[in-house]
Design brief:
alpha/beta; Enolase-like, domain 1; TIM Barrel; 2 domains; 8-stranded parallel beta barrel; 4-stranded antiparallel beta sheet; 15 strands
Length: 386
C-alpha cells in the first residue's frame, strides 16, 4: 500500500486592510499582517492555512512564526508517512506529537497554520471532508448558532452594527468593553435596545479589570441581562474566576488566559471558569482543538468557538470543521469577505444568517481555495520548498 507524504510548502506574507477599525482593550486595528500557507501532498492534495500570531496571547510574532515553520514544524511534517487509507482523525493523531512540541514551547499560532494546511491538503488529496465525525445521534446534528461581535465604539455605532446583525438573523451578540465604565454602560444600553430583550448578550473585557473593579462592573451588568463575561481580569487566576462567578452570578469565559495545555491544566488544578474560548489559530489547530475539547468534556466545561480579527475564509472553514464535532455550543463569525479588503480565498462557509451549517460530506478538504491573483499587492512570497 503506497504511503502519502507532505512534499511541498509555500509561505506568503500579506497585509489586509480592514473596512472599519476594530478596537478592544488590548488592541486597535485597521490592518492585519498575517502569513498564508500552502502545503502539497504526494497524492496531489493542496491545502491552506493562516497564521495570526498575537504577542499578548502566545508571545509569537510573524518573524518567529516563519522561523518555527521552517525550522521546526515543516521538517517534522516532511518526516511523516501516512497510510493511503488514512482518514481525517488518523492524520490528527499522527500530528499529535508535533502539536505537543509546539504547545510545550508556547508556539501554538505557528503550529496551527501548518496543522490546518496539512489536514486540508491530505483530505483534499483523499477526496474526503476535513472534519471531525459528526455526533452519532442525528438529533444533535444542527447548525451552530453564531455570535456577532461588536467592537468598542460609540453607542450609536455599536447599536447600528447590532441592528444590522439582527436583521441578518443573528440572535447572539458579544460587545467589547473595557476601562471606561460610563461609555461601556451607554454602549451596552444602546446594544440591548437594538437587539431586544430576548436575545443573548455577552461582553468581552479583554483582561481590562483588577479584582475590585471587576466585582463592581460585573454586578452592574445584570441590568443589561448579560449572560457571559469574557476574560474580565488583568491578572487572571482560576480562583479569581471562580470567585467572580460566585459573587456576580454571571459565568466567566476564559480566553487570553487559555492558550496552551499548561494554561488549561493550571485553570483546572484550582477550579476553572464555566466556559472556555477555543480558537484554532490560538490553541494549535485541529490537534489542539481535540486536546482542549476533550479536557473540557471531562470537566463539564462549555466550549465557545472564537475568532481573531483578520481571519480569512480558510480559518472560517477550519472553525466550521472543528465545530462539526458538536463540542462547541456557539461560535463567532468574522465575516472575512466583508471585514477584510480582499479575502483571497473562495468557497468559505456561510455565516450571514446567524447560523453555520456543518461541512458538506461530499466536499473534499475544507472546500476553500486560494486565488493567488487576489492576494493584496503588498503580499510577499517568503519561502517555497518542493
Amino acid at each position: 500500500m503506497k504511503e502519502i507524504h507532505f512534499v511541498g510548502i509555500t509561505v506568503w506574507k500579506a497585509a489586509f486592510n480592514l473596512r472599519f477599525v476594530f478596537s478592544h482593550n488590548l488592541a486597535v486595528r485597521d490592518q492585519v499582517e498575517t502569513l498564508l500557507l500552502s502545503i502539497k501532498t504526494s497524492n496531489g492534495g493542496i491545502g491552506y492555512g493562516q497564521a495570526l500570531p498575537r504577542a499578548y496571547l502566545t508571545g509569537e510574532t510573524l518573524d518567529s512564526v516563519l522561523a518555527d515553520i521552517r525550522g521546526r514544524w515543516w521538517p517534522e511534517l516532511a518526516k511523516l508517512a501516512l497510510p493511503a487509507d488514512a482518514d481525517f482523525a488518523t492524520v490528527v493523531g499522527a500530528l499529535q506529537p508535533v502539536f505537543e512540541q509546539a504547545d510545550a514551547l508556547r508556539k501554538n499560532a505557528s503550529y496551527a497554520a501548518v496543522d490546518i494546511a496539512a489536514l486540508d491538503a491530505f483530505t483534499t488529496g483523499q477526496g474526503i471532508p476535513a472534519a471531525f465525525p459528526p455526533p452519532a445521534d442525528p438529533a444533535r446534528r444542527r447548525d451552530l448558532p453564531l455570535v456577532g461581535v461588536i467592537p468598542a465604539g460609540t453607542p450609536g455605532r455599536s447599536a447600528g452594527i447590532a441592528g444590522l446583525l439582527r436583521l441578518l438573523g443573528y440572535r447572539r451578540f458579544k460587545v467589547k468593553i473595557g476601562r471606561n465604565a460610563a461609555m461601556d454602560e451607554r454602549r451596552l444600553a444602546a446594544v440591548r435596545k437594538a437587539i431586544g430583550a430576548s436575545n443573548w448578550l455577552a461582553v468581552d473585557a479583554n483582561a481590562a479589570w483588577e479584582w475590585d473593579e471587576a466585582i463592581e462592573r460585573m454586578r452592574r451588568l445584570g441590568r443589561y441581562d448579560v449572560a457571559l463575561v469574557e476574560e474580565p481580569l488583568a491578572a487572571a487566576s482560576a480562583a479569581d474566576f471562580i470567585r467572580l462567578e460566585r459573587c456576580s452570578g454571571i459565568p466567566v469565559l476564559a480566553d487570553e488566559s487559555l492558550c496552551t495545555l499548561a494554561d488549561a491544566r493550571s485553570l483546572l488544578s484550582r477550579g476553572t471558569p464555566s466556559w472556555w474560548n477555543l480558537r484554532l489559530s490560538k490553541n494549535g489547530g485541529f490537534a489542539g482543538w481535540r486536546n482542549f475539547s476533550r479536557l473540557a468534556a471531562e470537566r463539564g466545561i462549555t466550549i465557545y468557538g472564537g475568532v481573531l480579527v483578520g481571519e480569512t475564509s480558510i480559518l472560517a472553514a477550519a472553525a466550521r470543521a472543528a465545530w462539526s464535532s458538536d463540542a462547541a455550543v456557539s461560535g463567532e463569525y468574522g465575516f472575512p469577505r466583508i471585514f477584510l479588503q480582499g479575502d483571497p480565498f473562495r468557497g468559505g462557509p456561510g455565516g450571514f444568517t446567524g447560523r453555520m451549517a456543518p461541512p458538506r460530506p461530499a466536499t473534499p478538504g475544507l472546500g476553500v481555495r486560494l486565488r493567488e491573483s487576489a492576494l493584496p499587492p503588498s503580499a510577499e512570497l517568503l519561502w517555497k520548498e518542493g
